[in-house]
Design brief:
single chain; about 350 residues; mainly beta; Jelly Rolls; 10-stranded antiparallel beta sheet; 8-stranded antiparallel beta sheet; 22 strands; about 35% strand
Length: about 350
């Protein structure tokens, strides 16, 4: 059975049942500086080239019933029951399922700008709450440095472009957050945090990038976790971008999207998906944090610098609504539901 949803103005969704520069890292607000590492050894030299490639097939081999909504109750521990909702993903990284897809660009020949959530042409901050367990996210540690190693963690946020520049993403590797960016011919950089987050409790996470010099930041629970200079320049999805022909044909249904909790191209087991909860995701066109900060204790309220805001409080259906009110929006997301266990599902587990 094939179920189809049309998101007006964007796309039809089909769901089928079938080395230089020291890196700063720290935990609990204590930052330490170490030499960059590459090739698996401290003091090693990291090398990388812009446009580093991925390999894999365009389709996955998973199975599982797929439905149009996920309202099942979740009984995990460690959360706080509230009147709101969150999304629970199960790491089914195959067949375009168990994820949220947010379109950031239209396909050629439409070269008009994408929605506001397509950040990267200015400074940006992306922040959210997450809760996950180590047994569900087993990606090994990766080497930090001039590379695209972030793609090998359990992927939480994926704004990749298959075998092309101007991309970025966030994953969890070795139980800690990893943030990577590839510039427009200006190289690659992956930074690795130092705070363990796979303890099945809620954590606030913020990643930031500064346009002028490419500096990257990871904050966990209000404390600086990692920072380093990265590739500078615009890393938004190009308005005239053409998806590569790597997905059994052009990657039209995966490339021009911001994807939550999955590797967007289903390129294979080397690029695993995230299993856990996500809640309260805010995307901003400015740097929100430069030092440690107090954690929010309630849902975000939009402001002039918010370009997308997902409360994940719908509780049913397949739309994750953007409530930011940003000009040019909304940048709504669509749940692609399926797998075993079936995900994502709406849950009453929240961080507040």
């Amino acid at each position: 059975m094939v179920q189809r949803w049309l998101l007006p103005g964007f796309f039809t969704l089909l769901v089928c049942s079938c080395d230089s520069g020291g890196e700063t890292s720290g935990s609990g607000g204590l930052s330490t500086t170490s030499s960059s590492s590459g090739g698996g050894g401290v003091g090693g030299t990291s090398t990388g080239t812009a446009g580093s490639t991925q390999t894999g097939t365009g389709t996955g081999g998973g199975t599982g019933g797929v439905t149009s909504s996920g309202t099942g109750a979740d009984t995990g521990t460690g959360g706080v029951q509230s009147n709101g909702f969150s999304l629970r993903f199960f790491g089914n990284g195959v067949q375009d399922i168990d994820r949220v897809k947010i379109q950031v660009d239209k396909l050629p020949p439409d070269n008009t700008p994408g929605p506001p959530v397509d950040v990267g042409a200015t400074d940006f901050t992306i922040e959210f709450w997450m809760r996950a367990a180590a047994g569900d996210n087993t990606a090994a540690p990766v080497d930090c440095g001039a590379n695209v190693a972030w793609i090998n963690g359990n992927i939480v946020v994926d704004r990749d472009r298959y075998n092309q520049d101007r991309k970025w993403g966030l994953s969890i590797a070795g139980g800690k957050f990893v943030f990577g960016v590839s510039g427009n011919g200006t190289g690659d950089r992956t930074i690795c945090g130092g705070t363990p987050v796979l303890d099945n409790t809620w954590h606030h996470v913020a990643i930031e990038r500064r346009l002028s010099d490419g500096r990257l930041w990871i904050f966990v629970d209000g404390q600086l976790d990692a920072t380093n200079i990265g590739p500078e320049g615009d890393v938004s999805y190009p308005d005239n971008g053409v998806p590569g022909d790597y997905c059994g044909g052009p990657c039209n249904s995966s490339d021009p999207f911001l994807v939550l909790a999955a590797e967007k191209h289903d390129a294979g087991p080397a690029y695993p998906s995230y299993s856990g909860y996500l809640d309260e995701m805010r995307v901003s066109k400015v740097l929100r944090y430069m030092t440690s900060f107090d954690l929010p204790n309630s849902p975000y309220v939009t402001d002039a610098d918010t370009v997308a805001l997902y409360h994940f409080d719908e509780g049913a259906g397949v739309v994750a609504a953007d409530s930011s009110g940003a000009p040019g929006g909304p940048s709504d997301g669509v749940l692609s539901v399926g797998g075993t266990p079936q995900g994502p599902i709406w849950t009453g587990e929240t961080p507040f």
